[in-house]
Amino acid sequence: MENIIILGTGCAGFTAGIYTARANLRPLILEGKQPGGQLTTTSEVENFPGFPEGVDGFSLMDQLRKQATKFGARVENAYVDRVEFHQDKKVLFAGEKRFEAHSVIIATGAAPRLLGIPGEQEMYGGKGVTTCATCDGAFYRGMEVVVVGGGDSACEEALFLTRFCKKVTLVHRRDELRASQIMAKRTLEHEKIQPIWNSSVEEILADEEGKARAIRIKNLKSEEQSEVACKGVFIAIGHIPNTKPFQGIIPLDENGYLIPEEKSMVKTSIPGIYVAGDCADHVFRQAITAAGMGCQAAIEAERWLAEKK
Ligand code: NAP
pTM, whole model, 2 decimals? Predict the structure, then answer.
């Protein structure tokens, strides 16, 4: 039986791997469908401490992987689709494979919800379509951009983008924002933000280099279609946490995020099971906060395993 299995190879998973490996626990890290996690889809990370010149997401994750394996962490490709968590034994199933461990850190991340429209996949990550203003906003300095969505995330993205962009058009499918009042007020009062209501984005249109040049929108009341010129399309229609295998086993909130125990960010109600990163955090969702949670989860797991022995 493994001492500890870490699910996920994003910032949270690898940081937990570094800490538990340095504690001589020989962690097994299981890599899911997106090796390296969400950061691997970001061209450049400018806000991870220690990289004044920025670092591309793929390289950063590669460095974290090397750091974890250098200390003895093992990485195996296995997408866990079912779990059985008992007091003394945690069993994980990945298709035909079966794993057993004393302790588990769940760091399975979240995937941004996408629109599923023509042009979106083709221009995602570097060609004008993105889901993270904090990561990519600065690349659109002086340009016109669009944010899609009407929740707190969309407002936050739109407000953040006003720091760099000439104009931010907020396209929402209804005629009022879902966001909290304060965020909605701040957004709608901002001189650089222009809302377009009752509209769905039907297509993202490319220029001759294959980069975004405009979106085609449809007014849902009049059915009229029009184009909005933009160099960047920021999709902020929510995230889907990767927590399906834990449904009914660990408490989830109404959006599917894992709920840690009260007064703890990383402990769950099941002894030996910890959570870290975007699968349990819908508020910060940053690489550095995920890494921080990975560290916390690792230290908690290490203490729990030591007490158990
Ligand atoms: P959200 O509240 O679920 O809002 C998603 C928005 O996207 C909604 O306006 C929704 O439209 C729209 N949408 C969903 N699917 C769509 C589709 N297929 N096409 C077009 N529009 C679509 O998600 P969120 O904004 O990411 O927030 C998630 C949670 O985190 C919330 O509890 C939020 O309060 C919290 N959060 C808080 C902060 C903060 O406090 N600073 C910041 C970010 C997030 P409808 O309105 O029509 O449903």
Answer: 0.77
